[in-house]
C-alpha cells in the first residue's frame, strides 16, 4: 500500500508540474498586455509609464525566467499579488473565494444525489415500465440542457415570476446568516445539480438493475420484506459504489466548472474571479486559480484512486 | 411513492422542456464597460427619456421633481454591469459602473450642467487668466472628509504629488497641460498650466483629476485606500466585498443640501452589486433583488421597455449622449490607407440594418458625427456631409481602387480587397458584423474575414504597443466621444499616432497612442489645439465642426448609431432624474448610466 501511495504522489507531483507549466504558458500566450489592462485607456497615453509598469511587474523578463520565478515563489506558498487589485495576494483571493465555490459544488452534489437516487431506484425497479421511460426521458433532457439555460429558467421562474428567491449575488453566512445565504445559493446550486443528477441517476439505475438480479435480493423477497425496504436497505448500498466514485470525480470537476453559473448569478466564487481576471489580464490571479483548481482536481482523483485500491484488492494487486 | 414520483417526473419533464424552449436571450456578456462599439443607441428625439409605464412617452425630461416632499431613510441595491477594480481616483481604471460608486464617496471640484457648461461643486468658482494658463479656484468652506479632516486649499495641493504618480491621473495631468498646483490661500488654489487650456474645468469634473480624496490617508496606505477610500461625498464606505457587494452608508456630516434646503443624502445605505450578465441584471430589477440597474446595451433597453409594456412597474431613465458606436479603419495599413476604400466601405454599410441587428431599432439614431442631435456641438452641416448609405455609390468608389494599377495593397487590378472585421464576441455585435459582411461581400470586391477577440485583446490589437502603436487591426469595432467637453476626447484621437508622423508634422513631442485609427490630419489637429485656446463658444463650435467635416471627408471611422444608456429603477425611487449642483442648477443627467445618488429618496 505504501508503494501505491508513493507512486500516486509521484504522479501527482508530475501532473502538477505539467499543469503549472502548461497553464503558465497558456496565460502568457493570451494576446493582451497586463500593463495596458492596469493603466486603462487614460493611462496608456503615457508610453514611458507603460514600459515602467512592465518592468515593475517583471513582464520584460523572458517567459521561462518568469515561470521559474513564479514556480519558486509558488512552492513556498507565495502565488504573488493581483496586478489589478494591487496589494491583494492571490492566495488571499483564493482563500476568500474558495469557500463560496466549495459550498456551491457541495450543494450541487447533495441536490443531485437527493434527486438521482430515487429516480435511479424507481427506474430500475420499474424497468421498462412507463415510470422508467418517463424518468429516462426527463434525465435525457436534463443531460441535454446546458446548465446556464437551466439557470436562466430558474431565475425567470423563482425570482421574476414567483419572487421567492433573489436573482443574483451572494449573501455570505458570516454577514447575513444561513437562511439568507441559502436563498442566494439554492438556484445556482440547482442549476449545477441537474446535469449531475442525470448522470448519477443513470448510473444508479444500471447498477441497481444488476443488483436486483442477485440471489440475496431474491432471498429477501422470499422472506416477504417490503419492496421499499429491499430497494433502499439491501439493493441501494451495493449499487452505490460506482456513483460514489463518480461523485468524487465530478465534485473535483465542479470546483472548476462553476465559471458560467457564477458569472450568470454574479456569485463571488473562484469561477467569477477567474473570468474577471482573464478579461483584465490579471495573469497571476489566472495562474493561481487555475493551478489551485487543477491541484484540487488531481488530489481528489488521487484520493478516489487510493480509495478504490482499498475497496478492491484486485486493483491493489495489479 | 409511485404517485409522488410520477408527479415529480412530470414536473421535471415539463421544466426541462420549457427550459429547452426558453433558450437564452441573455447570453453571458462582457464584464467590462468598453470603448468598443456595442451598437448604437438613443431614441428618435435624442436626449433623455423617462418611461414609466408608457413607452411611447417621448418627452425629453432631465428635470427635477421639486414639488414632492422628500423622505429620509431606506436602503437600495444597485446592479452594475461590472465591478469597480478599485476606488482610488488617481490609480484605478474606472468607467461607467464604478463612476456610480465614486460619486457617492467623492465630491468632484466641478460638475457639468444640463446645458453642457461646467460649474463649481466643491469649488465655489474658478477663474482663468487671459491666456488660460493660470486658473484660480476658491473652495467651498466648511467641508470635511469622512475621517473628520477639513478640506482646505492645501488638501488640493497635497493631492497633486499622488496624482502625478497615478496611472489614471498622470495622463489627465498631461492631457490638460497641468504643470503645478499651489495653495495660494486657505481656500484658494492656483493651477498653473504649461499650455493654454480653455477647457481645464472639464478635467476637474472628471474623477481622475477632479475627485477630492484625503491625501494623508491615501499616502499612509496607497493600496489599502482602494478598499477604504476617504472622500467628502454624501456616503461613506461601509464594506467592500470584491465582485459581490460594495456598501456605502449615509454621511451624517455631509455639507450638501438640495434646492429646497433638505440635508443630503436621503438614503441610509446603498449596496452596489456587479451583475455582469445583462439578462440577470434586468431580472434582478424585475424580481426586486435590486432597486436599480444600469445598462449600456440596446438589447437590454428593448427588453426593459417590453417589460414595462407588459405591466412591470418600473421607471426607465434613458439617456442618449454623445457616445457613438461604429468602427475604425487602420489608415496606416493597406488597403485602408486609401480614402476610396474607406469611403466605399462606409457608403456600402447600411446603418439601419446594423442598428437593427444590434437590437437598437426604435432606440438608436444613426450617427453622422461624435455628437448626438441634442448636443450643443451637433452640426447639421456635418450630418449632411457624412457619406450616407448608398450601396451603388459606395461600390463604384471601391471599384475605382480595385481597378487602380497603383493600388496600395499590392494586388493586381480587379482582385478583391481583404478586410479583417473584428469585434468583441458580444452576440449583438456578431450579428451586426454579419450584416456588414453580407453587404460588403455582395459586391464580390471584398473578402471579409470576421474575427472576435475578448475586450482586452481587442483593445490591445488596436493599441499596437508591440509595433510602435500602429496596431494590428484592419476594420475594428469601436466607439467614440462622451458628454465631456469635446477637447477631452478628441485631442488624443487627432494627435500624431507615431513618432515618425509627429516628426514630419513638426510636433515631435506630441504622440498619442490613443489615436487608434492612426489618422492624422494636420489641419484637424490644429483646430483641436486652437479650440483649447479660446472660450468663445461660437469659435469653438466652428473649430469642432471643421474637425467633424474632415472626418466625414476622409472617413477614418464609420458610425452605426448613438449609444443609448439606461438606468432602470423601481417606481417608488425618486430623485435620480434631475439632480442639482450646489447653486441649484440642474446637472447633466445620467450620462452613460451614471447615477447621482445623493438626491435619491424612496417614496
The two chains with the largest interface, and their residue counts, are: A-B, 69 and 78 residues
Helices and strands of chain A, in order, run as HHHHHHHHHHHHHHH
Radius of gyration of chain B: 25 Å
CATH architecture descriptor of the largest domain in chain A: Orthogonal Bundle
How many structural domains can be distinguished in the coordinates of chain A? 2
Low-confidence blocks of residues of chain A: none
Number of helices of chain B: 19
Q: Average pLDDT of chain B, to the nearest integer?
A: 88
How would you explain this protein's 3D organization?
The complex is a heterodimer of chains A (318) and B (603). Chain A is mainly α and 318 residues long. Chain A has 2 domains: 60 residues, no CATH class; 219 residues, Orthogonal Bundle (MetI-like fold). Helix content of chain A is 79%, strand content 0%. In chain A, helix 2 packs antiparallel against helix 3. The longest helix of chain A has 39 residues. Chain A is globular. The mean pLDDT of chain A is 87. In chain B, 31% of the residues lie in helices and 20% in strands. In chain B, the strands form 4 sheets. In chain B, strands 1, 2, 9, 10, 11, 12, 13, 14, 15, 16 and 17 form an 11-stranded mixed sheet that branches. Chain B has a 4-stranded antiparallel sheet with strand order 5-6-8-7. Chain B starts with a helix and ends with a strand. In chain B, strand 5 and strand 6 form a beta hairpin. Chain B is of the alpha+beta class and 603 residues long. Chain B has 2 domains: 274 residues, Roll (Dipeptide-binding Protein, domain 3); 256 residues, Periplasmic binding protein-like II (D-Maltodextrin-Binding Protein, domain 2). Chain B is globular and about 75 Å long. Chain B has 19 helices and 19 strands. In chain B, helix 10 packs antiparallel against helix 13 and helix 16 runs antiparallel to helix 18. The N terminus of chain B is likely disordered. Chains A and B meet through helix 2, helix 3, helix 5, helix 6 and helix 7 of A and helix 1, helix 4, helix 8 and helix 15 of B.
Amino acid at each position: 500500500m505504501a508503494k501505491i501511495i508513493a507512486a500516486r504522489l509521484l504522479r501527482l507531483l508530475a501532473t502538477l508540474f505539467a499543469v503549472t507549466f502548461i497553464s503558465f504558458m497558456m496565460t502568457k500566450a493570451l494576446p493582451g498586455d497586463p500593463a495596458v489592462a492596469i493603466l486603462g485607456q487614460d493611462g496608456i497615453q503615457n508610453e514611458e509609464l507603460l514600459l515602467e509598469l512592465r518592468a515593475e511587474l517583471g513582464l520584460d523578463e523572458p517567459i521561462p525566467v518568469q515561470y521559474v520565478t513564479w514556480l519558486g515563489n509558488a512552492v513556498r506558498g507565495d502565488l504573488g499579488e493581483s496586478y489589478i487589485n494591487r496589494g491583494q495576494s492571490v492566495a488571499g483571493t483564493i482563500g476568500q473565494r474558495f469557500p463560496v465555490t466549495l459550498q456551491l459544488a457541495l450543494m450541487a452534489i447533495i441536490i443531485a444525489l437527493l434527486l438521482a437516487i430515487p429516480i435511479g431506484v424507481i427506474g430500475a425497479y420499474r424497468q421498462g415500465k412507463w415510470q422508467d421511460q418517463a424518468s429516462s426521458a426527463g434525465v435525457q433532457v436534463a443531460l441535454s440542457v446546458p446548465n446556464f439555460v437551466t439557470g436562466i429558467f430558474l431565475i425567470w421562474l423563482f425570482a421574476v415570476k414567483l419572487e421567492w428567491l433573489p436573482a443574483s449575488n451572494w449573501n455570505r453566512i458570516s454577514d447575513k446568516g444561513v437562511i439568507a445565504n441559502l436563498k442566494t445559493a439554492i438556484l445556482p446550486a440547482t442549476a449545477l445539480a441537474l446535469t449531475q443528477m442525470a448522470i448519477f441517476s443513470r448510473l444508479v439505475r444500471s447498477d441497481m438493475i444488476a443488483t436486483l438480479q442477485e440471489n440475496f435480493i431474491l432471498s429477501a423477497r422470499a422472506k416477504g420484506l417490503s419492496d421499499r425496504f429491499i430497494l433502499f436497505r439491501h439493493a441501494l448500498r451495493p449499487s452505490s459504489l460506482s456513483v460514489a466514485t463518480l461523485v468524487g470525480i465530478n465534485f473535483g470537476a465542479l470546483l472548476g466548472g462553476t465559471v458560467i453559473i457564477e458569472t450568470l448569478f454574479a456569485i463571488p466564487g473562484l469561477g467569477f474571479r477567474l473570468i474577471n481576471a482573464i478579461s483584465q489580464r490579471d495573469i497571476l490571479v489566472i495562474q493561481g486559480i487555475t493551478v489551485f483548481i487543477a491541484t484540487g482536481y488531481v488530489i481528489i482523483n488521487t484520493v478516489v484512486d487510493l480509495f478504490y485500491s482499498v475497496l478492491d484488492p484486485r486493483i491493489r494487486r495489479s | 411513492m409511485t404517485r409522488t414520483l410520477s408527479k415529480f417526473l412530470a414536473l421535471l419533464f415539463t421544466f426541462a422542456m420549457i427550459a429547452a424552449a426558453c433558450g437564452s436571450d441573455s447570453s453571458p456578456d462582457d464584464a467590462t464597460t468598453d470603448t468598443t462599439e456595442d451598437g448604437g443607441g438613443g431614441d428618435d428625439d435624442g436626449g433623455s427619456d423617462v418611461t414609466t409605464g408608457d413607452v411611447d412617452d417621448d418627452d425629453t425630461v432631465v428635470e427635477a421633481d421639486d414639488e414632492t416632499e422628500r423622505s429620509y431613510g431606506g436602503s437600495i441595491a444597485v446592479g452594475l454591469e461590472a465591478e469597480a477594480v478599485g476606488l482610488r481616483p488617481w490609480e484605478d481604471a474606472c468607467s461607467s459602473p464604478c463612476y456610480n460608486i465614486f460619486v457617492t464617496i467623492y465630491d468632484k471640484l466641478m460638475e457639468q450642467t444640463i446645458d453642457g457648461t461646467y460649474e463649481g461643486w466643491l469649488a465655489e468658482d474658478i477663474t482663468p487668466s487671459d491666456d488660460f494658463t493660470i486658473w484660480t479656484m476658491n473652495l467651498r468652506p466648511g467641508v470635511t472628509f469622512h475621517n473628520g479632516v477639513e478640506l482646505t486649499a492645501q488638501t488640493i495641493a497635497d493631492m497633486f504629488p499622488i496624482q502625478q504618480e497615478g496611472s489614471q491621473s498622470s495622463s489627465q495631468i498631461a492631457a490638460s497641460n497641468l504643470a503645478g498646483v499651489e495653495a495660494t490661500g486657505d481656500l484658494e488654489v492656483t493651477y498653473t498650466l504649461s499650455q493654454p487650456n480653455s477647457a481645464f474645468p472639464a478635467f476637474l469634473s472628471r474623477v481622475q483629476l477632479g475627485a477630492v480624496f484625503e491625501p494623508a490617508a491615501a499616502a499612509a496606505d496607497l493600496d489599502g485606500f482602494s478598499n477604504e477610500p476617504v472622500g467628502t461625498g454624501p456616503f461613506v464606505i461601509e464594506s467592500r466585498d470584491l465582485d459581490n457587494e460594495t456598501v456605502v452608508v449615509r454621511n451624517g456630516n455631509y455639507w450638501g443640501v438640495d434646492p429646497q434646503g433638505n440635508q443630503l443624502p436621503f438614503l441610509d445605505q446603498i449596496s452596489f452589486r456587479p451583475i455582469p450578465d445583462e439578462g440577470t441584471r434586468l431580472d434582478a430589477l424585475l424580481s426586486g433583488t435590486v432597486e436599480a440597474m444600469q445598462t449600456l446595451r440596446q438589447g437590454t433597453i428593448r427588453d426593459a421597455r417590453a417589460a414595462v409594456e407588459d405591466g412591470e412597474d418600473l421607471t426607465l431613465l434613458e439617456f442618449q449622449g454623445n457616445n457613438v458606436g461604429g468602427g475604425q479603419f487602420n489608415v496606416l495599413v493597406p488597403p485602408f490607407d486609401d480614402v476610396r476604400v474607406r469611403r466605399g466601405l462606409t457608403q456600402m454599410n447600411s446603418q439601419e440594418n446594423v442598428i437593427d441587428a444590434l437590437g437598437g431599432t426604435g432606440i438608436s439614431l444613426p450617427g453622422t458625427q461624435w455628437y448626438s442631435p441634442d448636443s450643443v456641438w451637433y452640426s447639421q452641416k456635418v450630418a449632411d456631409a457624412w457619406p450616407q448609405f448608398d450601396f451603388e455609390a459606395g461600390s463604384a468608389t471601391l471599384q475605382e481602387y480595385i481597378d487602380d494599377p497603383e493600388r496600395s495593397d499590392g494586388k493586381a487590378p480587379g482582385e478583391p480587397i481583404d478586410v479583417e472585421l473584428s469585434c468583441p464576441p458580444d452576440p449583438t455585435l456578431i450579428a451586426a458584423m454579419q450584416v456588414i459582411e453580407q453587404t460588403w461581400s455582395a459586391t464580390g470586391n471584398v473578402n471579409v474575414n470576421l474575427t472576435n477577440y475578448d475586450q482586452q485583446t481587442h483593445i490591445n490589437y488596436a493599441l499596437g504597443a508591440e509595433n510602435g502603436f500602429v496596431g494590428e487591426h484592419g476594420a475594428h469595432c469601436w466607439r467614440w466621444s462622451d458628454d465631456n467637453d469635446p477637447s477631452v476626447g478628441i485631442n488624443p484621437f487627432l494627435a500624431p499616432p507615431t513618432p515618425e508622423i509627429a516628426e514630419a508634422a513638426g510636433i515631435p513631442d506630441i504622440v498619442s497612442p490613443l489615436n487608434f485609427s492612426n489618422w492624422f490630419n494636420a489641419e484637424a489637429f490644429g483646430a483641436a489645439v486652437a479650440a483649447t485656446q479660446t472660450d468663445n463658444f461660437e469659435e469653438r463650435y466652428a473649430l469642432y465642426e471643421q474637425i467633424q467635416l474632415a472626418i466625414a471627408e476622409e472617413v477614418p471611422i464609420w458610425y452605426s448609431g448613438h449609444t443609448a444608456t439606461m438606468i432602470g429603477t423601481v417606481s417608488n425611487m425618486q430623485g435620480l432624474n434631475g439632480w442639482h449642483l450646489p447653486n441649484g442648477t440642474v446637472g447633466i443627467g445620467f450620462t452613460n448610466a451614471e447615477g447621482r445618488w445623493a438626491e435619491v429618496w424612496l417614496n
